[in-house]
């Protein structure tokens, strides 16, 4: 049986993601550095999680999870 896991650590200047697939593979590490645009920075984290677990699906799927950034009209 293969195990999926993703460990996310919040640092002062971003996030560190460490993931491992299977029992015999080395962990992979991704760093997301904080940017001035907090929304894009947080979206990057969400995209990494979705990609790691393959939540996004393909364009041919009838239903998919999407991340959308909306501007509030003033």
What this model shows, in words?
- The chain has one domain.
- A hairpin with a 2-residue loop joins strand 1 and strand 2.
- It starts with a strand and ends in a 21-residue tail after the last helix.
- It is an alpha+beta fold and 74 residues long.
- Helices cover 22% and strands 30% of the residues.
- Strands 1-2-3 form a 3-stranded antiparallel β-sheet, with helices on one face.
N- and C-termini, Cα separation: 52 Å
Portion in helices = 10-25%
The biggest beta sheet reads: 3 strands, antiparallel
Instruction: Indicate the low-confidence ranges by residue numbers.
Output: none
Our estimate of the beta-strand percent is 25-35%
> What shape does the CA trace take?
flat
Number of domains: 1
Strand order of the largest sheet: 1-2-3
Order of helices and strands: EEEH
| Alpha-beta content class | alpha+beta
How many beta-strand runs?
3
Radius of gyration: 15 Å
Number of H- or I-type helical stretches: 1
Mean pLDDT: 83
Short description:
Helix content is 22%, strand content 30%.
Topology (SSEs and partners):
Blueprint: E1 4-11, E2 14-21, E3 28-33, H1 38-53
Antiparallel strand pairs: 1-2, 2-3
